[in-house]
Write a structure and sequence with these properties.
By secondary structure, this protein is α+β, with helices and mostly antiparallel strands. Helix content is 24%, strand content 44%. The chain has a 17-stranded antiparallel sheet that branches.
Length: 347
């Protein structure tokens, strides 16, 4: 009996060896296409935002713009950036760097690695440099969006021909803006380890001692804060019943302290601050004298304010009082100190 020949073994297909590489190649092509689309979308949104700001009167420009970060990020670098508002405020920076990951394209980290400068309407430019100057911008669909700023070991230097700035340096500066429940927004700011400049109000109050500040407040009716520019948005917000509730705030300049225990603020139709702040003062006579010496309040108002302090201070060091912003005027108790601060300049 004969035995049948065994069948010839089948050759294994090499396709299985190549499939993973083919799939990887397809994934790379698809991801690359997505990155190119995201890059173009970032450029389109930037240009649209700049055009919208331009219509509102805010001029934004730069010399060069580069976008990289492939494959997982969008890295944007702008050089010779300038921002100018019709009110006179503005900012400039030799370089601005922004970064967002593709899985979170609306979460941006922004830095000014070589410093920046800001321009004051009446005071001129101030150059700012530091160990770290950065910001983050997220949740752009919320009102307000989440915005944070952090500066570490900052120095402040007025530009040529500019007026002095209150501080020459600060160890840390922070600002945070957040959306809250029930159409609210939160504003928190702080300054630590400030050093007064050689001239000015803080120099008279603090001398060589440190300066610190804190501000913690809540904004209502944030959905009404809309408009093509700052004045229009504030007007629409106040007309919609928006107010700022001050939780706590304060300025410490050496031994002089101005603490805000509570208060409510808004803006009048002509752009001036309106509301009341309940405050606690320490070294009040020294502070009033410094305000008079700087020409912020006149001599008669300073004398009357000192009388109020002596009447309310008694034997202690602290003075409880109210600072009232009404009808375009600032009053300390019954004493008129001058015009209320401007929130925006009417156009």
């Amino acid at each position: 009996m004969s035995v049948p020949d065994p069948s010839t073994p089948r050759k294994l297909s090499r396709l299985g060896l190549y499939v993973p590489f083919i799939l990887l190649g397809i994934a790379i092509v698809v991801w690359s296409g997505f990155w190119v689309w995201a890059r173009g979308e970032a450029l389109r949104r930037m240009d649209a935002a700049v055009a919208a700001w331009g219509k509102a009167g805010v001029q934004v420009s730069w010399k060069d713009r580069e976008i990289g970060g492939y494959p997982f990020r969008l890295d944007i670098t702008l050089t010779e950036v300038t921002v100018h508002d019709p009110s006179g405020w503005g900012a400039e920076a030799p370089k601005i760097e922004g970064e967002a990951y593709l899985h979170a394209p609306t979460h941006w980290l922004i830095a000014a690695p070589t410093g920046l400068s800001f321009n004051r309407p009446a005071g001129g430019a101030v150059a700012v440099k530091g160990q770290l100057i950065r910001a983050s911008l997220t949740h752009l669909q919320q009102r307000p969006p989440s915005l944070s700023f952090e500066g570490i070991k900052l120095t402040f230097a007025p530009g040529p021909g500019a007026q002095p700035f209150a501080l020459s340096s600060a160890e840390r500066v922070e600002f945070h803006l957040r959306a809250g429940p029930e159409d609210q927004g939160g504003v928190f700011a702080s300054l630590e380890g400030g050093k007064a400049a050689a001239l000015g109000l803080f120099a008279r109050l603090a001398g060589d001692k440190p300066v610190s500040m804190v501000w913690n407040s809540t904004l209502s009716k944030m959905s009404a804060f809309t408009g093509p520019n700052w004045p229009a948005a504030v007007r629409h917000w106040t007309e919609g019943g928006g107010q700022m509730t001050v939780r706590n705030a304060g300025v410490t300049a050496g031994d002089a302290v101005l603490g805000v225990n509570s208060g409510s603020l808004t803006a009048t139709s002509d752009g001036r601050l309106s509301g009341v702040l309940d405050v606690t003062l320490r070294q009040a006579p020294r502070g009033i004298a410094a305000l008079a010496a700087e020409g912020i309040v006149d001599a008669d108002a300073a004398q009357s304010a000192n009388a109020v302090v002596q009447a309310r201070q008694g034997g202690g060091e602290a003075t409880q009082a109210a600072i009232d912003f009404q009808a375009g005027r600032t009053t300390f108790g019954p004493v008129a100190l001058g015009a209320a601060p401007m929130v925006y300049a009417p156009r």
